[in-house]
Amino acid sequence: MKLMAVRSKGLAVADGDEAVLLGSEFGDMVDVVCNWEMVAPRLRSAIASTKSTRLSLDALDLAPPISRFRRDVLCTGWNYWDHFEEGRDLRPEIDRPEAPTFFTKSPDSIIGPYDPIAYDPRVSSKWDYEAELVLVIGRTGRNIPTTKAFEHVFGYCLGNDTSARDLQFRHGTQWTKGKGIDNTTPLGPTIITADELDLDNLRLECVVNDELRQSASIKQMAFAIPEIIAELSFGMTLHAGDVVFTGTPAGVGQSRKPPVFLRDGDLVVVRGSGLGELRNRVTKTDLYGDTDLQIISQ
Description:
Elements: E1 2-6, E2 10-15, E3 18-21, H1 29-34, H2 36-48, E4 54-56, E5 62-63, E6 73-77, H3 81-86, E7 101-105, E8 110-111, E9 117-119, E10 127-128, E11 131-137, E12 153-160, E13 163-164, H4 165-170, E14 185-193, E15 203-208, E16 211-217, H5 225-232, E17 243-245, E18 267-272, E19 276-284
Parallel strand pairs: 6-17, 8-14, 9-19
Antiparallel strand pairs: 1-2, 1-5, 1-14, 2-3, 3-4, 6-7, 10-13, 11-12, 11-17, 12-14, 15-16, 15-18, 18-19
């Protein structure tokens, strides 16, 4: 199934070119994920019913499919070797990691699949894009073995791990600050349940102003999905409804020669086979406020 969140209307499920609106009794997406075995038959009944309220998919104002987070958004870094190698000149002293690299993003960074990406050149002069496959955890677990990892995946969507590179490097080798700016991380457009996505043939792409910047098969991941889940859950509980970004391939702006960063008005499209696309315009926004910090490196 394809599940989505529609602003002012609640949840919906896709049926061909239409969306079937669901009642408030279904709760939000986290409720649906946590109660899937009970909810799934009711969704099928809603799709089959002639009394269901339907809207054209093209007419929907989609919100992020998940907007209630129990914790920070979980993320995987350096998970495509070509991306790790393209940035080696920035950190020549760091060897290839032997296990996945993890960090988190603030839930306040998450926006919808067609919302504007907030941009303020006073906060950062080096805004970058990162197309990613995103997991939605469907079953709570800890110390999950790789052989059972997919049993804990509810579904998949797309994410753009927009990054302020100068902030990222200002704060040492951790990435949380540079990747957690408010209203900068598109998520969606829908959640595709795990049974409907062909992972073997999934390709990620990022297009900026009609120029293809990133294109890779997820088979190029350094650490596959089962390894990510096993390592992340080692000693730490993953909860149903948690969101996990799985890393980006080569082609990011900071590693181009010369580097190319996002600017006001740029259109960033992230797409994935069977997952649809995110379409977000970089839009000048006041993120600077009343701060007295002056940290921009031009």
